[in-house]
Amino acid sequence: MHSHSVVSPVSKYSALVANLDAETLSYVSDIVLSPPNSDKYHTLSQRLITQFSDSETQKIKKLLTDLQLGDEKPSHLLRKMKELSNGQLQDDFLQSLWLQRMPPHIQTVLSASSEPLDKLAIIADKVSEVVGASSTICAATTVSPPSQSSSCSVQPTMDSLARQIQELSIQVAELTRERNSSRHQRYSSDRRRSHSRSRSVNKGSGICYYHRRYKEQARKCVSPCAFVQKRVSSVIAGMAEPLKHTSRLFLLDRKSGQKFLIDSGSEICVIPPSPTMNKSPQSNFSLYAANNTKIPAYSMVRKELNLGLRRPFI
């Protein structure tokens, strides 16, 4: 008994000889009866390959002329042709050879399809199963020339299938084109709307989109914007309408949307009152406008400003 784990050349040679039948032994009897002193396994295996394997010329000849569909499925024939070609032939050429061996009704259906070769083989199998019986009857009645009235009913069926496949292909292409066009138009419209919204300023009020929508909670501002100036002018009575263009330097608090004047030389900074501040009692400290109008003050406010710098300011 030989072990299943055959490692040495001598063991592999003995196992190979033990598994050869009588007919095969007749082709290598000279080696078995008088084995060489070395490389016995290699010599025997090469003789078997030479005797029983097809040459490249024989494979190509069988691929081009000998292989026929017969009673096999179209996919089985394609598999055999691929094995013989051994990856040396391109799919287009192999598909042409394979289609030549298909019945006319299958060729009619497959000619309208652009599917890969393997999927064409699956379609051919299904068509062959559906119309196999009718195709056999047509082939058996070719002894006498058939009249037009008694011709096989398979051809109209195949023509109908071919038309349906072609119509489906056109519909799929049209739907794909419409979907891509609709997606492009929707994307372009969204971009134009976003661009217009972010840059538009209400000409009647002079307030940008962000302050018009988010009021005091706006974190962005598009210049020119009169939102901050409008709040200040509603508190300080008697002051002139603020200029929309000024050479003074302001910094914007991104948290509240308020603008603060930089390096004005003032002693205090006036902050417009909020609804919560209006409920607080007035302070004893008062301000006066240029026309001597009294401006009520409520309290001192501690604010944390986000000026877009590295740290917040108190």
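That was protein one. Protein two is written in the same sequence-then-structure order:
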Amino acid sequence: MTATCIVFLGYPIGDDGAPHQAMSALQLSRNNISVTYIAWGNQPPPDWLVEYPQLNYILVKKSGVASALLLVKRMLHEARKARVKYIYVQGAQQTPFAAILWMLGSRRRTIYHTQDFLGPGQHWLYEITEQFVARRADVVICNEVNRARFMASLYRLPKMPEVVPTALPADWPVPARDESLRRGLLSRLGMEELSGARLVIAGGPYGVDRMSPESLRALAQLPDNFALVFTGMDDSSRRAQLEADPGYPAVCGRVLCLERLPFDYLLRVYAACDIGLLLYPNSGIGHFYQCPGRLTEYLRCGLPVVAANYPGLDLLVRRHDIGAVADPYDPEEIGDVLARLGGVSSEELAATRARVQQIAVSNMNYEREAGRVWKRVFERDS
């Protein structure tokens, strides 16, 4: 890829979450692109950023209106450097600042990349600024083709956005299955002596927006060797919501709540489980047309998925045979699908694990589509 320089306006990078929002910056910096990454927040950068020497990470401490002005000043300073050719705006939360840069006269070529297209009527400010930036951007990138089509129509974009699905790169380090960690999880559930235990990972905290009530009711229909694992349950309000759920008492001994975990350890937990849940409410374009980062996280860790039966996920799951789909509002259907996926022998599960891992590495890696898009964008302007 032709050498060039970009200023990247992104979310803070930390150890306590998946780095999907920063993935384009990370991967571009490994492809002969000099990236100045500017973020607004308070998370200390992770140690592994040293593995990306072409990425200069600038964190402006978030502490009120004054710090927002400092952020704009730093963005403008970096964007005006002669060698900078592109401004890369990652996510709707950065669009107010990108709009300010444009109004202050910054006219670098602009790439707008969203992995969480908001849809109409959800966040009025971001919707206004996202439309402003997207209509002026030289390139718009979405993470799912149906979102891209809707966004182009809603915002009256001059051309269709490019599509780069959210995914882990093929070379992202993913841990092997850790049987000692698995035994520890089962021990916390009192299931260490149970033959054929099946751990279903929800990949996030309890929440109505994650169809957790329906998941609990599905669990109640399943044999006692099935358990449900939530992560990110540090917040006492999340635990209170879980414990107040009418379906919780019947399955409380088969629900494990883990705290928020560093991303590398979260992947270890995924790899110690058996099935991944990807359920969403039908509450907007973003939920109805999904391409979540958790999909390839699960697959790379060897987990078949149970996904919402909406068009995008349904097509992915069926095309690649990586699990099953269910109506996310129907606990009985969710339970039936979990029973089918988890009701096979451990040997069959192991074979499935190897197969879905290979599919994720070969056919659903980040650079597969990103490389094609970047070639069109950057080499066109060389």
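The chain is about 40% helix and 15% strand. Keep this in mind for the problem set.
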